[in-house]
Amino acid sequence: MSNSGERVKVQLQPVEGRLNWGQFILDEKTFIEGFYTLRAYTNWMQNFGSEFFCSSSIQVVKNQAMPWEVQVKNQRRSDSVLTRLQLSGLNHTLVAAKELETTMFRGSKSIFRSISNTDDNGGLPVLFNADGNTQNLILEIKEIKQNEGRQMICTPLIFEDNIPADL
After folding, report:
1. What is the model's pLDDT at position 167?
2. Using CA atoms, how far apart are residues 133 and 140, in angstroms rounded to an integer?
């Protein structure tokens, strides 16, 4: 589903032995840049309402010529979170002294935005107020100056206590 709630693509998959796996293609004509919600459910699950469906939010962005790699370390501070980022190119060159815009999303809703520079080691600290809720956070990092295409990377922020235990 698109961010506006419109069904973009429907795909039916057979279930064999109570399991299913599959894939789908994100073609440029159907999936323009933006946020989408992936939903998966069986006919039986529809009896209980959409709150029982499996769903996940994703962001679709254009392919980049030289992608970035990011290492993330999160630290809680009462109601706020300090996220330390280390940015480098895939060839391990540091993304040093770059002016970047960082935006924090909870699902598809923007909750924080700032502009700052990476240090000489490609480091970028981001401090934001999480109101005690660290569920479903996605950090988007964009290059401000558009030289050879605007670099951008999105990464989910995962905290150990948000991972469900398999009991």
Report:
1. 46
2. 18
